[in-house]
Amino acid sequence: MAKKGKRTPSTPLSSASPSPAIPFGKDELPKEISDRMGRRMFIFAGIPTFLGILVFPIAYSLIKYGGIHLPNVAVVLVSMGFLGLGVLGITYGGLSASWDLGRKGSLLGFEEAKTNFHRLKDGLSSEGTRVRSNRRTSQTVEK
């Protein structure tokens, strides 16, 4: 029986060599890149999410103490807008981080997001092609 707290190393799912564009294996993400993505996600998702939650106490204060009438629908829509930006910020935070080791990337990450989106799209496309090919092969074997 294994001791608690000890993790056994997982075996890689694929024995294919890593892509030359990304200097790490398919099943691993270096800590440097993971931290970079986390910081960007915190900023791009955390700020709008915090503002989305902050809308309610601000609206309450304006209504209660400021005497300003705000429609409930407006308060909810503004909050939902900020929370929606927070959800988009999670995705953009991951895509806008530089996926290259030793390269921090730009402040807003527009160029990195474009590059990483193409990498993601190409990876999903090749994976879809592989799955369709395997499905066709298994269907012909069954007949």
Describe the structure.
The protein has helices at 31-64, 72-96, 110-142. By secondary structure, the chain is mainly α. It has one domain (31-138). Helix 1 runs antiparallel to helix 2 (72-96) and helix 2 (72-96) crosses helix 3. The radius of gyration is 23 Å and the shape is elongated.
Nutshell version of this structure?
With 143 residues, the chain is mostly helical. It has three helices and no strands. The relative contact order is 0.11.
Number of helices: 3
Instruction: Please tally the β strands and state the result.
Output: 0
What kind of assembly state do the chains in view correspond to? Answer: single chain
Largest sheet: none
What is the CA–CA distance across the termini? 45 Å
Overall mean pLDDT: 84
**Residue share in helices?**
55-70%
Shape: elongated
Estimated share of beta-strand residues: under 5%
Low-confidence stretches: 7-20
Element pattern in H and E:
HHH
Number of domains: 1
Summing up helix and strand content along with how strands pair, one would put the structural category as: mainly alpha
From the alpha carbons, calculate the radius of gyration and give it in angstroms.
Answer: 23 Å
